[in-house]
Amino acid sequence: MTNGTIGEREPNHGVFETITGSPTFIPVEVPSLYANNTQFQVSPWDISLDFGQVKGRGEQGNLVIQPLVRVLMSPSHAKALLNLLSINLHAYEAEFGPIPIPPEFSSAEQATS
């Protein structure tokens, strides 16, 4: 599988160029979270992904979701992330077989294929 970093861009005399090479990560404690629910919002300037966990159903049968974290990124960064996810999911399926998608999500899969 491919490990990918979506590089930031830095100015170079008014022209932007892609940073190449391996990034150096600042050593900090990064929490590891499990999410089985994702909500998103899109604007012309950014994309917001809210990751959470489904905790069950409420009294009226609606899902109870615990929000965990919100990640905001530019549309171009989101598109690069989509590309890396696609590459890695195809590699995963090549090694382990197809990932089943519940029928209620099949139209969402077709929209991104």
Short description:
The chain is α+β, with helices and mostly antiparallel strands and 113 residues long. It has helices at residues 75-96, 106-112, and strands at residues 9-12, 15-18, 37-42, 47-57, 63-73. It has a domain at 34-96.
Structure explained in plain terms:
The chain is of the alpha+beta class. The protein has a domain at 34-96. It is built from two helices and five strands, in the order βββββαα. The chain has helices at 75-96, 106-112; strands at residues 9-12, 15-18, 37-42, 47-57, 63-73. The chain starts with 8 loop residues before the first strand and ends with a helix.
Secondary-structure blueprint of this entry?
Blueprint: E1 9-12, E2 15-18, E3 37-42, E4 47-57, E5 63-73, H1 75-96, H2 106-112
Antiparallel strand pairs: 1-2, 3-4, 4-5
Keywords:
single chain, 113 residues, alpha+beta, three-stranded antiparallel β-sheet, two-stranded antiparallel sheet, 2 helices, 32% strand, extended, disordered C terminus
Kindly state the percentage of residues in helix: 25-40%
Give unreliable regions as ranges.
8-16, 109-113
Shape: extended
Structural class: alpha+beta
Rg over CA atoms:
18 Å
Q: What proportion strand?
A: 25-35%
What's the main sheet like?
3 strands, antiparallel
How many beta strands in the DSSP annotation? Answer: 5
Number of helices: 2
Distance between the termini: 19 Å
Mean pLDDT, as a whole number?
A: 82
Widest sheet: strand order?
Answer: 3-4-5
Along the chain, the helix and strand elements come as EEEEEHH
